[in-house]
Design goal:
Rossmann fold; four-stranded parallel sheet
Length: 227
């Protein structure tokens, strides 16, 4: 089985690494578009155009499934890509608003996302459907992805996030950009043990397995090695 993973930049490598751990029998192939990273400040039409072009190596490799390991690309492009390439299953990422809203005990969550993701119709729909009774706080993370791409994840200032957590009594943080996965350990340290930090790698792996198992029902099932 071949799994393609696309992200605008380094964020997809974190997702790919987790997929290799959880689905060790699969070959995981990555593609990125670092010439145009970050995507978070671009228009929806531009993100679709860039994503459509950048996934060509994964299509050429005949991947069994392609993961759009980018919330911005998912929001802007996944539905059109499914129409463009109906024979190829696409798995997209979206902010984990639903699980965060069900987990919170204080009724307040933080969603860390790019401006494009926060403005997307899909994200707004997720908030309406699953977080109507929850206080959703959206701190300014607009410079985080660029810092990660520069190899400066350790320099990202998390003081504002810490202030939001305390001021809003938030107990769940949603990392809604794969670049932010590289900050997860630091965010967990800043947030403290009473705050849960969510990112979607395990959920993506489970969805990939559902798709590939359905496509080949005669294949010998392989364990999904969740911790």
């Amino acid at each position: 089985m071949k799994i393609g993973v696309f992200d605008s930049g380094l964020g997809g490598e974190a997702v790919a690494a987790r997929l290799r751990e959880l689905i060790p029998h699969a070959a995981v192939i990555t593609a990125n578009d670092r010439d145009h990273v970050p995507y978070g400040s671009r228009s929806e039409a531009e993100v679709y155009r860039l994503t459509s072009r950048a996934i060509h190596p994964l299509l050429a490799a005949s991947c069994d499934v392609i993961v759009l390991a980018c919330n911005t690309a998912t929001a802007a492009a996944v539905e059109q890509l499914r129409r463009d390439h109906p024979a190829t299953p696409f798995v997209g990422l979206e902010p984990m608003v639903k699980p965060a809203s069900s987990m919170t005990r204080t009724g307040s969550i933080l969603v860390c996302a790019t401006p494009a993701t926060l403005a997307s119709p899909r994200y707004q729909q997720l908030k309406r459907h699953w977080a109507g009774a929850v206080n959703v706080v959206e701190p300014d993370c607009s410079d985080w992805a660029a810092a990660v791409e520069r190899g400066e994840a350790d320099t990202v200032d998390l003081e504002s996030l810490q202030q939001h957590l305390h001021r809003e009594s938030a107990d769940v943080v949603v990392l809604a950009c794969t670049h932010y996965h590289w900050l997860k350990t630091r965010i967990e340290q800043v947030a403290g043990p009473t705050v849960t930090v969510l990112e979607p790698s395990d959920a993506v792996a489970a969805q990939v397995r559902r798709i590939t198992d359905a496509a080949d029902p005669l294949a010998q099932p392989q364990p999904l090695r969740l911790p």
